[in-house]
Amino acid sequence: MKHWLGLLLAAALPAHATEVNVIGLFPGKAVVVIGRGAPRTLSVGDTVEGVKLLAADSKGATLEVDGKRETLQMGQHFETAAQTGERGSVTLFPNERGHYLADGQVNGGHVRFLVDTGATMVSLPSTDASRLGIDWKKGKRAYSRTANGVTAVYVVTLDSVTVGGITLYNVEGLVHDAAGLDTALLGMSFLGRTEMRREGQNLTLVKRF
């Protein structure tokens, strides 16, 4: 149970919404985080806070969440709809290295982010940007110094960036050409539009109005 091999990510959502994140998988069992709660180990057939485990193995868990059936792999999360007009938030838990990692979306496509308050903008490797359908070479060209040296970057506007219960629109971003970046960074062009709160080791982001 000590090696869950997953990313801890749970959203602090408005009322009438449920978010579940799978952080551990075993034959007939799954370790999940529901909302902002502590990790729970569910056996097939168990129901906790409206979440029922239907099946589980090393590849994924099939859950029924508030009556909706969903199959999730390690580190994936699912949320039911929240009431409109309410303030969105997400709580991130550090991994074993103390880094905050989050599954999110850019322009509707899945992205795995590393939270980086030292990054001025949301930053994407060119491979991710191309997969998301971003015509990044039409962006404004600049240069950035990374651990791999100086690399070309392109300034773009991302239609939307979503992490947990937060969706922001028209977010300034950087696309790194070649091998200048291997992980998408959740930088200050997103973080600066949220309130960042430390709760022990956890980091909660709350969308500003």
CATH topology of the largest domain: Cathepsin D, subunit A, domain 1
* Gross CATH architecture of the largest domain: Beta Barrel
| Derived structural class | mainly beta
Distance between the termini: 40 Å
CATH class annotation of the largest domain: Mainly Beta
The count of helical stretches stands at 2
User: Tell me about the biggest sheet?
Assistant: 7 strands, mixed
- Strand and helix order: EEEEEEEEEEEEEHEEEEHEE
**Cα Rg:** 18 Å
Percentage of residues in helical conformation: under 10%
Oligomer: single chain
List strands and helices in order, with pairings.
Elements: E1 9-10, E2 19-26, E3 29-34, E4 40-43, E5 47-48, E6 51-57, E7 60-65, E8 68-72, E9 77-79, E10 89-92, E11 101-106, E12 109-115, E13 122-125, H1 126-131, E14 140-146, E15 149-163, E16 166-176, E17 184-186, H2 188-191, E18 194-199, E19 202-207
Parallel strand pairs: 12-17, 13-16
Antiparallel strand pairs: 1-10, 2-3, 2-9, 3-4, 5-6, 6-7, 7-8, 10-19, 11-12, 11-15, 14-15, 15-16, 18-19
